[in-house]
Design brief:
Blueprint lengths: L2 H9 L4 H7 L2 H13 L2 E6 L4 E5 L2 E5 L8 E2 L8 H13 L13 H21 L2 H21 L3 H4 E5 L3 E5 L4 E5 L7 E3 L6 H15 L11 H5 L14 H26 L6 H16 L3 H18 L7 H23 L5 H4 L6 E18 L4 E10 L4 E10 L7 H4 L19 E10 L3 E2 L6 E5 L4 H5 L8 H11 L13 E4 L3 E2 L3 E3 L4 E7 L5 E7 L5 H9 L10 E9 L2 E10 L7 E3 L11 H11 L15 H19 L6 H17 L15 H18 L19
Parallel strand pairs: 11-13, 19-21
Antiparallel strand pairs: 1-2, 2-3, 3-4, 5-6, 6-7, 7-8, 9-10, 9-12, 10-11, 12-14, 15-20, 16-18, 17-18, 18-19, 20-21, 21-22
Helix pairs in contact: 2-3, 3-4, 6-8, 10-11, 10-13, 10-20, 10-22, 11-12, 12-13, 13-22, 20-21, 20-22, 21-22
Length: about 725
């Protein structure tokens, strides 16, 4: 195929969106103006290049297409001259996107687009690992392969096959358009550093989504050379990657040793030297890029310091849970290392990174004021992204000691972004955020560089149609039972929010003894799901609002925005707002909007204030445990007592016998994983920790334990 024919085949797939992604919309507008005035011709045509003369400038194309065209002007990137030349060639071939006869040729073009899309599909699937490594380098390919392995394809990758292929990474909010050529032909819709590795990741994600097994990266130099014994004097120098790998291995072994020694010594007998070792290991973990491990080691160091100071918040049992959790993380990191993997969900992030995006369309769906146990007050707004079908939040918080900040007043004050008169004005409306900064866990920054354009949608039905709702409670329970099965699964607070569509709402009632409002919700099968709001000053208004709805009939199709939490094996939801399909402003913010009438809550409010529990407590009555959970609890307390006393050489045999007896009892009633525990671990203390981890994993599956000890330290109900 000649160069011109190859170029025309690629250009036939380009539309205005593709050209805008290649450069930007401003340059595209200038290119169309140049087409009307400039004198354009082909000055050179050969097998390896085609040069288009455009006034005083010359644009040179090769077989890689417009993405690698070069212009004689001083511009460092794709300029308006390259766009002008590409569009001129496209039009000259009779393949203009804006062809006036497009309607007549619609059937033929549809067939042509389908054939073109199939050709692109085949080309992407046939790209070899060797070509991708050549494009991004070995380290770039290794990064891309690991990046794709960490993706949940159904949720994290969107694919579109039309006249060209679109590959979108949802969480990174990066889209690639592929119109032909090699991996370099993938056009990103935003500027990215080291774009080559992202282009390779897009190809690998497309291949993996289509069932192709990906070629694993080559082993590091260490694994290739470690089989060769050159002697100490002639050993090969370690590169940075090998040095870091060795440092991580030594770190994990040191952490495992310290955890074991803590249990051998006894958690009730720790010394200041243990505190110093945890602090030192935390610094080491941070330097070795084990950020999640470093965070947990700092947390344990603080806990040990509290124990040594005999602080009231210190608890040996909770410390044992934390140590066990760290042990599980270290084991998971070791297992990943053996497979040549470095999953980010285990390594963690150095800090909460915010990425800037050109535009983001959101729907305002409510807000919540809160007070944390660590002494902060804040206002958090919740948003829904119709494009990504996910929730986002934005928080404005201040220390409780900083006087003058009132979350309820903040709800009606200007901001948090330029163009938004108040958070209250975002409820029930569409926001177009320009320059939005978004963290990896879905939190929006309140930076002043972000601007907001507030738009009113035609009606409430149009607003509601953009939501993904749940109307069957069994599906909701299945979704959340699968969400965090692993004890090491990190919290994803935005995924705890749901849009519920009950078949009918029951009457909300307030229990002054438990200080809790309960609101039953029923689906089509008449299955009940409890919505609960514990009493606090911040929740008082929402309690009154829900109570006032008892005598009202909410219209059919009303949607409840709520946060899901687990209470034992049961799911409970905490209401935030209602979306009314018949209202002018569809969102009814339960925590802020005025109640049409008062409930009996106001008659007892003063008495409730006198008997309110301590801040941060809900006053929930404990539920009866099943025989299975009771057996787990009995074994858990026995293991914790052993860890508190310690495992000395003289008591090792007795501790091992007692441990075996408890594990055998649990295995006999159905907890069969205790039968599979390794028995070749020489140290009794480490066997005790490993057994405790399996026990905590069972409790987690039964809904009896938080998955991360750091969860309890969040300052906002919107954070994990």
């Amino acid at each position: 195929m000649s160069l011109r024919a190859l170029l025309l085949e690629q250009l036939s797939r380009y539309d205005d969106e593709a050209y805008a992604a290649l450069a930007n919309r401003g340059l595209l507008r200038r290119a169309y103006k140049d087409l009307e005035t400039a004198t354009i011709s082909i000055s050179v045509e050969s097998d390896d290049k085609l040069v288009v003369a455009l006034g005083e400038q010359e644009v040179q194309f090769d077989r890689r297409g417009p993405t690698h065209a070069v212009c004689s002007c001083p511009a460092a990137a794709v300029c308006q001259h390259i766009l002008t030349a590409a569009i001129w060639l496209q039009r000259a071939s009779g393949e203009s996107v804006n062809n006036a006869q497009a309607g007549v040729m619609e059937t033929a073009q549809s067939r042509e687009y389908e054939e073109s899309a199939n050709a692109l599909h085949s080309t992407l699937l046939q790209m070899q690992a060797t070509a991708l490594i050549k494009h991004a380098g070995k380290s770039g390919y290794r990064w891309a392969w690991q990046f794709v392995q960490d993706l949940e394809l159904e949720a994290d990758v969107q694919l579109l096959l039309d006249r060209y292929v679109v590959i979108r990474f949802v969480k990174r909010r990066i889209s690639f358009r592929y119109l032909g050529g090699g991996a370099e032909g993938l056009i990103a819709d935003t500027q990215i550093a080291n774009i080559e590795k992202y282009q390779v990741a897009a190809v690998l994600a497309y291949q993996r989504a289509n069932g192709i097994s990906l070629v694993e990266p080559e082993p590091s130099r260490k694994s290739q050379n470690e089989k060769l014994d050159f002697g100490k004097d002639h050993a090969l120098a370690e590169d940075a990657e090998t040095s870091q790998s060795l440092s991580r291995q030594r770190l994990r072994e040191a952490v495992r040793q310290l955890l074991t020694e803590c249990v051998q010594l006894g958690l009730s007998h720790l010394s200041s030297s243990v505190l110093e070792r945890f602090s030192t290991l935390a610094v080491w973990a941070q330097a070795a890029d084990h950020y999640r491990l470093a965070r947990l080691l700092r947390h344990v160091a603080d806990h040990v310091e509290q124990l040594l100071a005999r602080a009231t918040g210190a608890d040996e049992q909770r410390l044992f849970d934390d140590l066990t959790y760290i042990y599980g993380l270290v084991e998971a990191l070791d297992s990943a290392e053996q497979k040549g993997l470095s999953p980010q969900r285990l390594l963690g992030l150095a800090r909460n990174r915010y990425d800037t995006f050109n535009s983001l369309i959101l729907l305002g769906i409510g807000a919540l004021s809160w007070r944390s146990a660590s002494g902060y007050r804040g206002l958090t707004m919740l948003f829904w992204s119709p494009e990504e079908q996910s929730f986002y939040s934005c928080t404005d918080a201040r220390p409780d000691a900083q006087r003058g900040f009132n979350p309820r007043a903040r709800y009606k004050a200007a901001g948090p972004w330029r163009g938004l008169s108040a958070p209250a004005d975002a409820c029930g409306r569409q926001l177009l955020l320009n320059g939005a900064q978004v963290s990896t866990n879905g939190r929006l920054s309140t930076t002043e560089t972000t601007t907001a354009v507030v738009q009113t949608l035609p009606n409430a039905r149009h607003f509601l149609d953009q939501f993904s709702t749940c109307s069957r409670w069994d599906e909701l329970k299945e979704r959340f039972s699968l969400a965090r099965q692993s004890l090491l699964a990190e919290p994803q607070p935005m995924k705890d929010w749901v849009a519920l569509k009950p078949d009918r709402f029951g009457a909300g009632y307030f229990d002054p003894v438990r200080q809790l409002l309960t609101w039953p919700l029923y689906d089509h099968d008449n299955t009940e799901l409890r919505a609960e709001i514990p009493y606090s000053d911040d929740n008082q208004h929402a309690i009154e609002r829900v109570e006032s709805l008892a005598d009202d009939t909410l219209p059919s199709g009303t949607v409840l925005i709520a946060k899901v939490r687990r209470s034992g094996s049961e799911l409970i939801v905490e209401p935030l707002s209602l979306i009314n399909p018949n209202s002018a402003n569809p969102v009814d913010a339960l925590h802020f909007d005025e109640a049409p009438k008062l409930g009996v809550m106001t008659k007892t409010i003063q008495r409730l204030k006198r008997i309110t529990t301590k801040r941060g407590e809900t006053g929930l009555a404990p539920e009866l445990m099943t025989s299975y959970t009771a057996a787990l609890e009995a074994a858990r307390h026995a293991l914790q007592r052993m860890a508190e006393r310690g495992v000395t050489e003289s008591s090792s045999r007795q501790v091992l016998s007692e441990l075996s007896r408890h594990l055998e009892k649990l295995a006999n009633i159905g907890f069969i994983e205790f039968q599979k525990l390794k028995i070749d671990i020489p140290q009794t203390a480490e066997r005790l920790i490993r057994s405790h981890y399996v026990l905590l994993q069972y409790r987690n599956l039964l809904g009896e334990a938080p998955s991360d000890p750091m969860q309890e330290r969040g300052d906002s109900p919107f954070t994990g």
